[in-house]
């Protein structure tokens, strides 16, 4: 397994913390957090701050470099903003050295400034797919709004994390178009997701094959050469199976450890053990 992988490069790990789950009124066809599709997932309003801090400590113990505070929903309301700021301050107080990322949907310059003041280092907002394909996937908000939020992130001086998801029925041209749009924003990190089918969702099956997915990782690295991390996020296990560490040979240098937002990943320790067994160096730098 994974016999000829280049093990010389540093690998970064990132953990996500779903601090509000499954309560979204938007209709993104790939997302189990939308209340419209009634997927069988955990739904809750606000995770306890103590639990968020515990998860951050665990993430650091598991060699995570980044820790992402994710909320469901189209964007930041006053209440949600106050909650994310409270969580960010609590995590930062622990001085764990984590890069703190917020991922809370559409956000204005003013809201992003407040997050920055609370200690958030980076903001994750994915374009998801190409501009022309987006209306087939989401009807409750526009792609342009997403692009504007990414521009707002840059304007306030937060580091931008911006990627997308493949396998929703998009064409190869649309995949390339999304990568071009991401490249135009010059993000720090680019998370790539691969659609995970769920019987509750309107999209029945992923439309991307493993070899195409590997090629897209290489293409993303080529088209966005200055991104510090090309990160493989949701769908890693399902898409790449026993070949999942080959992603590092194709241009990725980071992945999400532990559970994803509504689906379970491999245990972080399992991943770390396998990476180290294969000779990879996990970068444990401090923010
Ligand atoms: S992707 Fe975001 S905005 Fe869309 S349904 Fe899921 S949580 Fe809501």
From TrEMBL:
EC class (word): transferase
Any single biological process term in GO: biotin biosynthetic process
Binding locations of [4Fe-4S] cluster: 24, 28, 31
Cofactor: record remark: Binds 1 [2Fe-2S] cluster. The cluster is coordinated with 3 cysteines and 1 arginine.
Keywords: 2Fe-2S, 4Fe-4S, Biotin biosynthesis, Iron, Iron-sulfur, Metal-binding, S-adenosyl-L-methionine, Transferase
SUPFAM superfamilies attached to this UniProt entry: Radical SAM enzymes
Domain of life of the organism encoding this protein: Bacteria
Annotated ranges, domain Radical SAM core: 9-226
Pathway membership, UniProt: Cofactor biosynthesis; biotin biosynthesis; biotin from 7,8-diaminononanoate: step 2/2
Recorded family membership: Belongs to the radical SAM superfamily. Biotin synthase family.
Annotated protein name in UniProt: Biotin synthase
